[in-house]
Design a protein that fits this description.
four-stranded mixed sheet, 444 residues, UDP-n-acetylglucosamine1-carboxyvinyl-transferase, Chain, alpha/beta, single chain, binds shikimate-3-phosphate
């Protein structure tokens, strides 16, 4: 299939030691933006979405939904209308659905596709084809889904079948697996119950409840039962706490007085990074706390801090699973020892984020002890500017940029075009705060 992944191997130059200040907005939440498209498509009627994230991952989902016959009007980059076709209204795609780099797209769509009357193929970039799919194909098969994978990986070949509800204790806490099964549960006979070993993000459940689904949400389990129709939503997507995390760490390290980030989602299943940074002596105020479309939102204000090492493990890990690359950078600048445990899932993200971050930070002179399920390091460490590699992993590339701000001398982050997968205006946002970061003009 044609690879929709068009990220160029662009590099960023980062200069150290600036004082940052100002107020910024970061883009819409990636998880909620994916779900707004998928769930909006399954509703009866028009779903209005404001603050949508127009990034590589979510645009892949948008293309997939269009390929399934769903009309999506983009009024501007962040404002959409999804013309929901109802639970039975998707059309057979004429080609494989290309999820590009988006793990959330392929895993959530697998749940939807398993319940359709037509066959489909789900595929993606070379990077997505390396991410484990057994975690969804196994429970989907327990629901009687007809799904064939490629030695445990994408492409996934799905044929029509009559799904039946199951009770599934998830072996790992994963919002993608949970959401996949809840979506499949919409098309299954009988109730589907997902039992959670930890507090994975709950955006799917919140949205399904708001759409009138027959769903029962308890602390460690979610049950969905037959639902005749979903009501459309009128949704404002909060700013992504995972994108805010880069600005928060930069602010804690380099703010002159304070940095404010407006309208950030502070759903408790996503705010582990705020708790971890608090343990590291970083003060982040949550102002104007409000509810927007069923999600808690606040303005976050971070002030400069002398960071201290911390021990991070257990449920906190699940609540900040995407924030470990930037946490590792923060730890290099913290006094004392930081240890992360119970984070083996990091090894199956866009990259093996423990190995890749340790490897790249070592190029800047950091000393990091890798463990199977985490890492330890002693700080603060003096970093020296160098050429590092973003490995086509957006969170790795942005974390290395923030590390570059801490280093002596210039840092070049190669293969950083992937930043557009989740935070397309990251460079502009950081520049507006005073950071000296720029794309290197490859033509010079
Ligand atoms: C996501 C869930 C998480 C997270 C990913 C987005 C989601 O993955 O890492 O970036 O939107 O459901 P897992 O469910 O695999 O932990």
């Amino acid at each position: 299939m044609t690879d929709l992944k068009t990220t160029q191997k662009k590099s960023l130059r980062v200069c150290p030691n600036q004082e940052l200040n100002g107020t910024v907005r970061v883009p819409g939440d990636k998880s909620i933006s994916h779900r707004a498209l998928i769930l909006g498509a399954l509703a009866d009627g028009l779903t209005q979405v404001r603050g949508w994230l127009p990034a590589g991952d979510t645009l892949a989902t948008l293309q997939c939904m269009r390929a399934l016959g769903v009309q999506i009007d983009q009024h501007d980059t962040t404002t959409l209308t999804v013309h929901g076709v109802g639970l039975d209204g998707l059309e057979a795609p004429t080609e494989p659905l290309n999820c590009v780099n988006a793990g959330t797209a392929i895993r959530l769509l697998a749940g939807v596709m398993a319940g359709q009357r037509f066959p489909s193929v789900l595929d993606g970039s070379y990077q997505l084809r390396r991410r484990p799919m057994n975690r969804i194909t196994h429970p989907l098969r327990l629901m009687d889904a007809a799904i064939t994978d490629t030695d445990g990986y994408a492409p996934l070949y799905i044929s029509p079948s009559h799904l039946r509800g199951i009770t599934y204790p998830m072996p790992v806490a994963s919002a993608q697996v949970k959401s996949c099964l809840l979506l499949a549960g919409l098309f299954a006979e009988g109730a589907t119950t997902v039992v959670e070993p930890g507090p994975a993000r709950d955006h799917t459940e919140r949205m399904l409840r708001a759409m009138g689904a027959n769903i029962a949400i308890q602390e460690h389990q979610v049950m969905i039962d037959s639902t005749p129709r979903l009501h459309p939503l009128d949704l404002t997507v909060p700013a992504d706490a995972s994108s805010a995390a880069f600005v928060l760490v930069a602010g804690a390290l380099y703010a002159h007085t304070a940095i404010r980030i407006e309208g950030v989602g502070v759903n408790p299943t996503r705010t582990g990074i705020l708790d971890a940074l608090a343990m590291m002596n970083v003060h982040i105020a949550q102002e104007n706390l409000r509810d927007e479309g069923g999600e808690p939102v606040a303005d976050l204000v971070v002030t400069p801090a002398l960071l201290q090492g911390a021990e991070i493990q257990g449920d906190l890990v699940v609540r900040m699973i995407d924030e470990f690359p930037i946490l590792m950078v923060a730890a290099t600048q913290a006094k004392g020892r930081t240890t992360v445990r119970d984070a083996k899932e990091l090894r199956v993200k866009e990259t093996d984020r423990i190995a890749v971050m340790a490897k790249e930070l070592r190029k800047l002179g950091a000393k990091i002890e890798e463990r199977d399920d985490g890492f330890s390091l002693n700080g603060p460490q003096l970093l020296q500017g160098a050429v590092v590699d973003g490995h086509d992993d957006h969170r790795v590339a942005m974390s290395l940029v923030i590390a570059g701000l801490s280093a002596q001398g210039e840092t070049i982050v190669e293969d950083a075009g992937c930043i557009r997968d989740s935070f397309p205006d990251f460079v502009e946002v950081m520049q507006s705060l005073g950071a000296k970061i720029e794309w290197i003009d490859e033509n010079k």
